[in-house]
Design brief:
The complex is a heterodimer of chains A (253) and B (321). By secondary structure, chain A is mainly alpha-helical. Helix content of chain A is 74%, strand content 0%. The longest helix of chain A is centred in the middle third of the chain and has 23 residues. The chains are: A mainly alpha (253), B mainly alpha (321). The interface between A and B is large, with 47 and 44 residues.
């Protein structure tokens, strides 16, 4: 599969996801729902690598993406004073998208996957709340939390369809991307989702940079040496990693 | 008579549900634990689990399996209340501080998301695709109902039909699903499931109309929140719809909807609506739904569960606060 076809697949899925949750009032007041193309790319890794992919995988991949869209909607609810119409609808948007993921999988009789994903979502919210908890967490624990928040439902989806070999690359890539973006925004004095709430990250910026470099090196090495990934997909991943190079992120924000 | 007395023979099973709720909301996150327990301790009538249990009595009843429906139904209700409090910017509920007031909106969002997720996880013990279609449809419709409610806020140009469609999604559908899912989980026959589903729908409609009446006729103490708060939020309910154009009401109503009403005028507005025939007419509509609910339940074989459902329906539609 060449790069153009990969892009087409990602775009096709994005369209499909947005179609599933099209709701005029929500769109009018809360805008187009957040569908992170990079996350979608990593969700679709097996498809993009030419693995057998049928209707069930397709529906489940869309459902997993809806989970992230739902969670992203709720992340946009302000901590204080969310009483504007747009904010009120932001609350409902997340609940609506979440209901749609459940509905989609229920119609496809994927009860066992629903069980795993809902347990995953519960876990994601538990880890998100760590950033508001008075209890202190270590640097390593917070990094693990971020990785889980960013990738758990995708991991469960890949494991469910026995695409185990893709899990490591997906998890590391998701973590890498978010850490780079966060650090770059933080350096520009912009409010970030994780670092702004964490004294540990703010006090250990050097450790954070080292962590990012470590993840990037391991990911690049693994992708290059992978016997599973086909060459075009390897190139696509490496391009994404370099497109999000820390240096570039820090320069461009 | 207290509502709980009407289902006192379910007490031991409701204790099981209460314990299961505590287990279900148990979290590795200290913060979510605290917020969820805060909600659980606020109590509530647990009327939705009661509907699940009583409906299940029409099939092969086993608390061990039926709790897998009753617990998630209550969790969904709890989760939607936490999110509603963010939407309504509510400081108190049932006389207690809301999660968003005690912590902040984001924590309330996480708490609601956590409860929704736990609810879905819990009900997957029920391996029945149709049941999941019912519940997921219910969750989606609940949201659409709330979205429409926000769209319709402060909109005087709406019909009784708009109102009924809104409360169907907002309230009736979850009570209907409670009854339907209870019956499905206990493998009741299809005809029984249908009657119970419709019964739940009609009771839910009647209940919500009464709730909207009580928002106007009750005192702050009885409600556990300021009387007329729905109206001040801009929600046009049935009693108000009937009398919105009356001379003594319209100007005050406009003030209330503009959000600029004084306490004195608010009390005057509530008093004018109470004196009008809006309350009586709304009660008539509620009674009509109650009748329909009782007609549905009439079709079912005689049992103590049937009697309890009838009594609860009557109680909910006749309650004073």
């Amino acid at each position: 599969m060449n790069e153009a076809l990969m892009t087409q697949h990602v775009e096709h899925y994005k369209k499909n996801i947005l179609m599933q949750i099209q709701q005029n009032t929500l769109q009018k007041y809360t805008g187009i729902p957040v569908v992170d193309e990079n996350r979608l790319f990593y969700t679709l890794l097996p498809l993009l690598n030419g693995e057998e992919w049928n209707k069930s995988e397709k529906i489940s991949a869309i459902a997993v993406s809806l989970i992230f869209t739902a969670l992203a909607a709720h992340d946009l609810v302000k901590e204080e004073n969310a009483s504007s119409k747009a904010q009120q609808l932001q609350v409902l948007a997340g609940d609506y998208y979440s209901g749609r993921y459940y509905q989609l999988l229920a119609k496809d009789s994927k009860i066992d996957l629903i069980q795993q994903l809902s347990s995953g979502v519960a876990s994601v919210t538990e880890h998100k709340s760590r950033f508001y908890d008075l209890q202190e967490y270590t640097f390593e624990q917070l990094i693990q939390s971020i990785q889980l928040i960013e990738s758990k439902p995708i991991e469960q989806f890949l494991e469910y369809y026995s695409f185990h070999e893709y899990v490591f690359i997906m998890k590391e890539a998701m973590l890498l991307e978010v850490l780079k973006k966060e650090l770059a925004s933080f350096e520009k004095n912009e409010r970030t989702f994780y670092i702004s709430k964490s004294k540990i990250f703010q006090l250990n910026k050097v450790s954070l940079i080292l962590e990012i470099e470590k993840i990037e090196n391991a990911l690049v090495r693994d992708v290059r040496s992978s016997e599973l990934l086909k060459e075009p997909l390897k190139q696509a991943i490496l391009e994404r990693v370099s497109a999000f190079s820390l240096e570039k992120q820090l320069r461009e924000g | 008579m207290k509502l709980k007395l009407l289902y006192s023979d379910l007490k031991s099973d409701l204790d099981v549900i209460e314990k299961e709720l505590a287990i279900a909301v148990n979290s590795s996150s200290h913060l979510l634990n605290e917020a969820s327990l805060h909600l659980l301790l606020a109590g509530g009538k647990r009327i939705r689990p009661v509907f699940v249990l009583l409906s299940a009595k029409f099939g092969n009843y086993s608390i061990e399996s039926i709790k897998n429906v009753a617990v998630p139904i209550e969790l969904i209700h709890m989760a939607s209340l936490v999110h509603d409090d963010v939407i309504d910017d509510a400081e108190t509920r049932r006389g207690r501080e809301t999660v968003k007031a005690q912590w902040n909106n984001r924590v309330a969002m996480y708490t609601g998301d956590f409860l929704f997720a736990r609810a879905i996880e819990y009900i997957t013990a029920l391996e029945n695709t149709y049941a999941h279609e019912v519940l997921s449809h219910t969750m989606v419709e609940l949201c659409i109902g709330e979205i429409i409610q926000i769209e319709d806020k402060r909109l005087l140009d709406q019909t009784v039909r708009d109102y009924l469609r809104r409360i169907k999604r907002k309230t009736a559908i979850l009570i209907s699903a409670s009854c339907e899912l209870g019956a499905i989980a206990s493998q009741a026959d299809e005809k029984t499931i249908r009657h119970l589903k419709r019964f739940g729908y009609y009771v839910g409609m009647s209940f919500q109309i009464i709730d909207d009446i009580l928002d106007i006729t009750s005192t702050d103490e009885q409600l556990g929140k300021p009387a007329g708060s729905d109206l001040l939020q801009g929600n046009i309910t049935l009693p108000v719809l009937y009398v919105k154009n009356e001379q003594s009401i319209y100007p005050l109503l406009m003030e209330a909807l503009d959000g600029e009403i004084s306490e004195e005028n608010k009390q005057k507005l509530l008093s004018e609506i109470r004196k009008s025939d809006g309350i009586t007419r709304a009660k008539q509509v509620s009674n009509m739904y109650l009748e329909k609910a009782l007609n549905e339940i009439k079709q079912l074989p005689a049992s103590s569960a049937k009697k309890s459902l009838q009594n609860i329906a009557l109680f909910m539609s006749k309650r004073k606060f």
